[in-house]
Input
Amino acid sequence: MTQTRVKPQPAQEQPLSAIRMLRESLRVEERKVSYWRRLVQGRIDLVRAGLAGKQPTLDDLAAPNRRIPAGYRSPSAVDLLDGARPSPLHTAEDIWESPVPWTDADELTRLEARLVELETELSAYRHLLHDRIDASTGELIERYQRDLAAPFDDEPEPPGAA
Output
């Protein structure tokens, strides 16, 4: 069975509503990626502490001076992608589900390497999302400016102008 790939329309050919929807979906995705990136960075800090022989206590994990918005308190608070687009978020979820091997230095070292690699992927993906958000915003601004500068051909002539 042959799969046909549909080539996406360039932004210039899409209606404004489609560009707005694309931009909003990119913003939602960026928030997810940013959240997971923060989680991964925190896990890297914990693993590095473990490698230095300092397994964190519950008090260390509580971080009393950090305020986290209610919608970003746990991985379950973030809807993950359904697999429609390639994303490092699935890898983040897999690594997150794995327990931290506090007593095995070799496994802890491997986990640190996986986390650092994942953080790099998340950062690159986040950068790509920012570029796409900027491009869609730029397209919207260009269209708005062009539409404002265009003559109103559909406007009826004033009475007595004929």
